[in-house]
Amino acid sequence: MKIVVIGGSGLIGSKVVAKLNQAGHEVIAASPATGINTITGEGLDQALAGTDVVVDLANSPSFEDNAVMAFFRTAGNNLLPAEIKAGVKHHLALSIVGVDLMQDSGYMRAKKVQEDLIKQSGVPYTVIRSTQFFEFIGGIANQATEGNVVHISDLQFQPIAAEDVATFVAEAALAAPVNGIQEIAGPGRFTMPELITRYLKAGNDPRKVEPNQNLQYYGARISYAALVPAGQAKLGAIDFENWLSSQLANA
Known about the structure:
Blueprint: E1 2-6, H1 11-22, E2 26-30, H2 44-48, E3 53-56, H3 65-86, E4 90-96, H4 106-121, E5 125-130, H5 137-143, E6 145-146, E7 149-153, E8 156-157, H6 162-173, E9 180-185, E10 190-191, H7 192-202, E11 208-212, E12 216-217, E13 220-221, E14 234-235, H8 240-250
Parallel strand pairs: 1-2, 1-3, 3-4, 4-5, 5-9, 7-11, 9-14
Antiparallel strand pairs: 6-7, 8-10, 12-13
Helix pairs in contact: 1-6, 3-4, 5-7
GO molecular function: protein-containing complex binding
Protein name: SDR family oxidoreductase
Domain NAD(P)-binding: 7-173
């Protein structure tokens, strides 16, 4: 099977490419650096010739509201028609659990547009909505830090390891399109202040966590449970303790 992975050099993309290569498939890791650009259209027709599956894991280089909307809209409007022209049988994209519940965020509005373009394209598809990654916890703490205090909203939180995300994406790429949404999440549910406190403590970080009831995530207002699956989700195998141990061992 020939599979093109858009964003194939990123955190998830590089892992997905490795897993699909290991399974014996012909895999192209697509990015502007390899001459395949979904924004300009450069290299798309050549890369997609004879392709069975496209896995779209690309992310916007800017999270500014207008820039991120332009990125996902332009990429979808270039990539999906090129897939129809090439006869691609399955388009798989990674999205975010609760994306439709967090429309106060410009980034989430752009991801929802990406999903809608896929659904309207006519290409058989699978959208995998993932919870946030364990790998994001440090960044979440940093953006909420003032002085020595992390001001973090008391939200439900069920992050997943990037390795598990890549496993689910690779499995879905080799399966038939579901023409719908699948949700994936980590195996444990926490509150965000609880998990960030444990993360900082494990790293001997002296910052204190101060929970609040603002219900904000990166400045956007969301609901208490927007970041966790609403129904049945596939759960990853790596829990927080095992993920943290691996991070500390590699530090």
